[in-house]
Amino acid sequence: MSTSTDHEVNDGVKEVIELEEATIRFAGDSGDGMQLAGTQFSNTSALAGNDVATFPDFPAEIRAPRGTLAGVSGFQIHFASTDIFTPGDSLDALVAMNPAALKTNLADLEPGGILIINTDAFNKKGLAQAGYEVSPVEDGSFSDFNVFEVPMTKLTRNAVEDLGLSQKVADRCRNFLAMGLVYWLYGRSLAPTLRYIEAKFGGRPEIVEANSRALKAGRNYGETTDAFVSSYHVDRAKLAPGEYRNITGNEALAWGLMAASKLSGKELFLGSYPITPASDILHELSKYKHFGIKTFQAEDEIAALTSAIGAAFGGSMAITASSGPGIALKGEALGLGMMLELPMLIINIQRGGPSTGLPTKTEQSDLFQAMYGRNGESPLPIIAARSPGDCFDVAQEAWRISTRFMVPVLLLSDGYIASGSEPWNIADFDTLAKIPIEHPAGRDNGEPFLPYERNRRLARPWALPGTPGLMHRVGGLEKEDGTGNVSYDPDNHAKMCAIRARKVELIADDVPPQEVMGEETGELLVLSWGGTYGACLSAVRAAQAEGFAVSHVHLRYLNPFPKNLGALLQNFKHVLVPELNLGQLDTMIRAKYLVDTLRLSKVQGKPFVIAEILHKIREILS
Amino acid sequence: MSTELPVLTPADFASDQDIRWCPGCGDYAILAQMKKIMPTLGIPREKVCFISGIGCSSRFPYYMNTYGIHSIHGRAPAIATGLKAARPDMTVFVITGDGDGLSIGGNHLMHAIRRNLDINIILFNNRIYGLTKGQYSPTSPLGKVTKSTPMGAIDNPLHPLSIAIGCEATFVARTIDVHIKHLGPVLKRAAEHRGTAFVEVYQNCNVFNDGAFSYATDRDTKADTLIELEHGKPLLFGKERNKGIRLNGLDPEVVEMGKGINEDDLLFHDEKANEPSLAYLLSRMRYPEFPEPIGVLRAVDRPKYDHELSRQIEIARQEKGEGDLNELFNSGETWTVQ
């Protein structure tokens, strides 16, 4: 563990310009180590006290042909001395490791922005692969930007020259050289990354040495070359006091699940089948066997959920985590889980759909699937995370609802939240709310046990196998009210459908009323859910600053909606629903509240930028 | 309080539900034998769970006074995996059929077997789809005429035991619904096996596929069409036990005893053979070319998934100590905001 003493300032020879915030992107071939560069820069910026939001963006192909447009991988970091909620609309600085990276990313760079290119990759072959006939370095197309041409390959090879590494291995250190240069540019300490290198490659001293040298060589290049006349400084953000760490959405979700398991005194069982972008939850939980966690890599998506159903019946905190295509396969088992009325969590880290869609890109187009994706009358509660850190809280809330109401809960996150990161005010486990669970006691008086007898929340008892006298059978066939025996009685079926629906509705009594950011009445309400939180909030704040009568409601509970939502919607002249789909929440809102909402849709596999929403707000209110 | 277990009878394992199989269905006999062996296992009712999928056989859990799940089509092995992984203390039975287990649920069956959880999978094979009223199943023979194959089935049937052996099964057995003196003991041995026990039960569907196994159940022919396996014993059959199975190269052949052939020339059954080759060879012996083996084809001891899963947790705890969440949250790079 280290703390914020890792602070390094530039030598004072060159000018240091103060910035409130900056957005940079590392872009290169998917084999260039850009995700690592981005992650390290994010963590270092967070350790330096900035607020940070990140956006890793990588192709679905593990290794697309080198140097091609399809193989470009990027990592965007927004860091600031104020609180920020998105990874930034456009770039202040772009590092392009090859022509393909330049071509696919240059459009996002602000005029006057910093462009650092690895000139060694701008050879005939590289240019041709990116479809450049003339090198953009030479044809004047960079006139809008502040360009730094850096022979990164050559500098890296020089730095590690006497270590006796093969050229291939030496060139692999190039990302550290690029990092070193950017670290200098923003006055970042090298120490955290040097520690990372030591921890990661500790067993191979020559690799530790080579990467460390490349990192330092990059920093030194910035410091000594005349090309760079000034560097930048982004001050510490005024975050709430406390202990912080950087955290990704999937990490926070896994840790939130672990916390919920301990808070409820339940053994955690995860049944999961690998799928992008949910697999990291399986990886993360698999590390913690010493917490008593059981993870099961199932043979398919169906077994992932049905094994969880078995574990739930057995009394575990049962979870499955997947993404849209996997959830589609789980549809029948979701219905069974709902019929059995057992607690379990079904996590959907949404990605671009339909079908295989855009596996590594983000979208929030599985809301309808969560809401309606089962046969029969089968409502299930839906809860959605809004940011990486929020996943920690949502995991616990989902489990609380699931056990209080004896119902499977669908938890929605998305690729943008899952692999993005932000500073997290580290939770103190000892202060988290307990999740009490009761199980009926055994009996030997011969009285029949009624597995579908209900409490005032309409929840049935969670009788654990192994308990004497409570032997009972559950199944997917319709059950008789109370006894749970198979029943084909028409009135009983109508009654049971109504009870199951009513039970989900009752959850609205058990969750906090919907909060509003801004005035509770006004001209326009921006209504959002899930990963668009940051962009919507930032846009509404900006519009408020411009004097518009606009407020923001961000939903965590999507089924049922909070009880006061309908009334809130009536307080505004217009309601705008921005979504990364073609209008799914919008349709649900219209159906339930008969409100003539306005829709802002985006399905490009990319998150909203603030400007898109702000522009729409201005358009509606001007 | 007495620590001794109460003495239970088969009736104690009967639930209060009316049984709704067709009169004359082979399932009744299997249910009766299951109830009969349960008290002999020494396991209290509350420690037993029956899990099924969809199909006639899958109604089974409703009729047992234990814990039970009547789940969805083909998924019982996966549900059983989750229950057994979470609750190694439970005795878990999977009740499935040829359609449920080998068609829609083939993938789950395969993986449950290879993991070798300590569960028992009883596959009722009637070579037909009964609940959906008479379509052919993955074990129906070639040429089988049914509602969905009016000109005869054109896909090759699966052999359940061969599949189980191919999936690294540690216990594989076959028995017959009406052969109750054989059925009960085989079920009991399956229950006592540590690891996944796979039992195929030839079960007559008297409505949609009556007589599918009459060759193996008719009093007059069964001595010649069945061969009862006994560990360490030569493969002898026939009313007079005058026929045997001999290996000719890699192939089995039927021989008549006497005429220079004695027991030492025959194939000896070894259910504990390290390699499953013998068990596989036996599983391929089909009527009418061969007598079909019943009894235990294979019973070996191998690591069990549920046991290994718990053991890894124990090892991790020994090495790292019981996990502490605050320690985890504060691990790695952190910083303080004043």
Q: Mind explaining what this structure looks like?
A:
The complex is a heterodimer of chains A (622) and B (338). Chain A has 622 residues and is α/β, with parallel strands linked by helices. Chain A has three domains: 15-234, 3-Layer(aba) Sandwich (Pyruvate-ferredoxin Oxidoreductase, domain 3); 245-431, Rossmann fold, CATH 3.40.50.970; 522-621, Rossmann fold (3-Layer(aba) Sandwich), CATH 3.40.50.920. Chain A has 21 helices and 22 strands. Chain A has a seven-stranded mixed beta sheet, with helices on both faces. Chain A has a six-stranded mixed beta sheet with strand order 3-4-2-5-6-7, sandwiched between helices. The longest helix of chain A has 20 residues, at 205-224. The two termini of chain A are 52 Å apart. Residues 1-5 of chain A have low confidence and may be disordered. Chain B is α/β, with parallel strands linked by helices. Chain B folds into two domains: 10-233 and 269-311, Rossmann fold; 235-268, no CATH class. Chain B has helices at residues 27-37, 76-86, 98-104, 106-115, 160-166, 180-192, 214-217, 222-225, 277-283, 305-320, 325-329; strands at residues 48-52, 67-70, 91-97, 119-125, 171-176, 197-202, 226-228, 236-237, 243-248, 251-256, 292-299, 334-337. In chain B, the strands form two sheets. In chain B, strands 2-1-3-4-6-5-11-7 form an eight-stranded mixed beta sheet, sandwiched between helices. Chain B has a three-stranded antiparallel beta sheet with strand order 8-9-10. At the A-B interface, α1, β9, α9, α11 and α13 of A face β1, β2, α2, α4 and α10 of B. β9 of chain A pairs antiparallel with β12 (334-337) of chain B, so a sheet runs across the interface.
Task: Give descriptors for this structure.
heterodimer; A: 622 residues; Rossmann fold; 3 domains; 7-stranded mixed beta sheet; 21 helices; B: 338 residues; alpha/beta; 2 domains; 8-stranded mixed beta sheet; 3-stranded antiparallel beta sheet; globular
